[in-house]
Design brief:
Number of strands: 0
Number of helices: 4
Helix content: over 70%
Structural class: mainly alpha
Radius of gyration: 34 Å
Order of helices and strands: HHHH
Distance between the termini: 26 Å
Largest sheet: none
Low-confidence stretches: 1-6
Mean pLDDT: 80
Number of domains: 1
Shape: rod-shaped
Strand content: under 5%
Length: 146
């Protein structure tokens, strides 16, 4: 609505007072700016929470991969190592060599799972980059406006 267009008062249809059509006071401007800055800060915090939550999900996935690597490594030592080693020994290899071959294969599998878990943790970002960039942009905008 244009500032110079007269408004009708809802109660009696009379034009508004001169004080009603005047520009906002300094107090009103400060209150409005405070409200706007408060809204911006809340939105920045919300964005930071979202980014950190996403990062935590990536970290959780990586930790799950490490847990799976440990699980397979330990149970592999208990079950497969024994069964495969005795199978190789039955084929004519020395018993110690059969056990060594199976242990190396299982540790290679655990290492592969560990590397996949490390990669997943590497994708997790500890800092909310978008929130920081947005906050810096807001600060620059406010500095330019002042």
């Amino acid at each position: 609505m244009a500032l110079d267009a007269p408004r009708a008062d809802a109660s009696n249809g009379a034009p508004p007072d001169i004080a009603d059509s005047a520009e906002p006071t300094l107090g009103q401007l400060v209150a409005s700016a405070t409200r706007d800055v408060s809204t911006i800060v809340r939105k920045e915090i919300e964005l930071a929470k979202t980014e950190i939550s996403t990062s935590a999900k990536h970290a959780g996935k990586g930790l799950g991969m490490f847990a799976a690597a440990a699980f397979f490594g330990l149970f592999g030592l208990g079950f497969l190592l024994t069964a495969l080693a005795w199978g190789l020994a039955a084929l004519g290899l020395a018993t110690w060599l059969a056990f060594l071959i199976v242990a190396v294969v299982l540790f290679l599998g655990a290492a592969i799972l560990g590397l996949v878990g490390k990669k997943a943790i590497g994708q997790a970002k500890a800092t909310p980059e978008r929130a920081i960039a947005s906050t810096q942009q807001t600060i620059e905008t406010l500095k330019a406006a002042v």
